[in-house]
Amino acid sequence: xxxxxxxxxxxxxxxxxxxxxxxxxxxxxxxxxxxxxxxxxxxxxxxxxxxxxxxxxxxxxxxxxxxxxxxxxxxxxxxxxxxxxxxxxxxxxxxxxxxxxxxxxxxxxxxxxxxxxxxxxxxxxxxxxxxxxxxxxxxxxxxxxxxxxxxxxxxxxxxxxxxxxxxxxxxxxxxxxxxxxxxxxxxxxxxxxxxxxxxxxxxxxxxxxxxxxxxxxxxxxxxxxxxxxxxxxxxxxxxxxxxxxxxxxxxxxxxxxxxxxxxxxxxxxxxxxxxxxxxxxxxxxxxxxxxxxxxxxxxxxxxxxxxxxxxxxxxxxxxxxxxxxxxxxxxxxxxxxxxxxxxxxxxxxxxxxxxxxxxxxxxxxxxxxxxxxxxxxxxx
Amino acid sequence: xxxxxxxxxxxxxxxxxxxxxxxxxxxxxxxxxxxxxxxxxxxxxxxxxxxxxxxxxxxxxxxxxxxxxxxxxxxxxxxxxxxxxxxxxxxxxxxxxxxxxxxxxxxxxxxxxxxxxxxxxxxxxxxxxxxxxxxxxx
Lengths: 380, 138
What we know:
Low-confidence stretches of chain B: none
Radius of gyration of chain A: 19 Å
Number of helices of chain B: 1
Low-confidence stretches of chain A: none
Radius of gyration of chain B: 16 Å
Oligomer: heterodimer
Number of helices of chain A: 12
Structural class of chain A: alpha/beta
Largest sheet of chain A: 9 strands, mixed
Strand content of chain B: 35-45%
Shape of chain B: globular
Distance between the termini of chain B: 44 Å
């Protein structure tokens, strides 16, 4: 028995994305979950499972209390931030496949602009970088800085360029321009990217994702139950997690240009029985433009080192060979820790995206490639 | 109150001996006592053979720049007056493959190159705390 085709996403919900929600993170979570439940054609009390990101301030118990849920049969939290994002749905799918719960909600709610900003200096950096004492005293503090070291190495080994980072930024903004929910909708040109100030050379401002207030939620149920609900199901063809070796060794991993996502990708495709050539749309965790390049390599859309040229020439734009982040991504829609990417992937399957790709039969969601990570393939 | 002094290393049970070495202006890297595999950052268990026995081996402090960034934005108030500054990821010559991140000093920011030779230097921040940094070596 595998997880293949056992579950489906049947409801999606989002709050407005803003710089000041004016409400608590728990209030945002409740709103997004209620919307997802309503979208699914269910009632709140049908929910009997919750999966959260470990960094979310709203616990499963708090959400269940607020929503008046009668009982939670399955509840857990997934670590590693952006790497854990898809992992929430991996676990929800496993729970419903094993009949441990009927309807599981996965959510993320944060005041990431008006409140504590992800990446701020409080010694809680990426969990897979180990002890902050080996970075903080030297001003190696934020993910932007830690990951810029990886990008610089990739540029050295493969000739990847800042202009290629810019091609990603331009494509994300093009997709966001079509999306009324997006926070940054003004199209940008490559020159705008090049003119944006350096944050941690080689990362510029426009290489870095947004910080946002808002929440997203999805409802997951079994493939059987999904058939009788309100929306076209987004079946979960495959769901996997992966780390590869030495996931906590940070910059002491032997190669800094191959990433944990490669191992997750192998597992994901093995379960699915499909390969990258079968994927029509890719929603990719884009905390930094470089990681779109790195993820395309890790998931086999191109060879290692060829991600830079791959993103040029419009290949990842809506009309291109492999549209990426049709909502604008973390870079231009909003930073809801990519629960918004899972929502968008579901929309692509339903045919309701603001940047709809024709014949979106198989849609990939790839979580942050440089963390202990996860991924999903959704299908019609 | 805004913390403007530099963040200091916080030794743990696993890293105490490393930082004591730095205080003596010595660089010690962990080596598995059973299979001889080196590891950094210091941690209790060998990733090659899972032994919990280890020893500390002195390193020369010579290495090359494996990667680097130039920080232009301060993510911590103590660095507001220090930007732009460089952080280099140095791969030590000995033991091979071990990498350490720190500031690159005595080197103009536009002259940093991957592959350039560097050597360790030490800064004493107070009677209890010293850190390691790197500078170019000819």
